[in-house]
Amino acid sequence: MFTFGIALLIAGALAVVVEIHSFTIYLIAVAAACFVAGGLALMAHTGLDATMMAFALVLLAGLPAVHYVRKRLKNPESDLISRDDVGAEVEVISVKDRSLRVRYRGADWDARPVPDLAVEGLVPGAILRVFARDGNTLILTARDVPAQPSARGTKTTNQG
Predict the structure, then answer these.
(1) Is this model's pTM higher than 0.70 or not?
(2) Which CATH number goes with the domain that contains 123?
(3) pLDDT tens series, the chain, 160 aa
(4) Residue 47 domain-assigned?
(5) Count of domains in the chain?
(6) Are 143 and 101 in contact (CB under 8 A)?
(7) Are residues 12 and 60 in the same domain?
(8) Distance, CA of 103 to CA of 111 (rounded, Å)
């Protein structure tokens, strides 16, 4: 069980590293389950059945807890920040099926077209417009489609 415990601890560490880069927050529950099960396997010399039971219990308890925390961390300001991209123009770098790679703000981004946008004629160098954002994936539409107004732009101030 020593090797299995070490493998679980390594898997937990890898889950933490992936979580840091993906910001899904759910991998924290997986990492915690790996650390608890790996620790039990190493320190208490539990068998495979007990180790996997501990992993499953921690994961089953951790996922709803992490989901609750994620809901509590969500705020309207983060939604407004992601709407800042709406209307911006991007340059297509590559097209593969319905997946696109685009250049935006000096970096390469994953993107996908809105469902009614035909990608057959798209070539590298084409200019598209950001319609929305889904996490780190840009949702793109044709350049001539007007951008949806963002909620941030609806406020007016009186500077008298």
Answers:
(1) no
(2) 2.40.50.140
(3) 689 999 999 999 999 999 998 878 899 999 999 999 999 999 999 999 999 999 999 999 999 999 999 888 877 766 666 577 888 899 999 988 888 999 998 899 999 998 888 777 788 898 999 998 887 889 998 877 555 544 444 333 333 3
(4) yes
(5) 2
(6) no
(7) yes
(8) 10
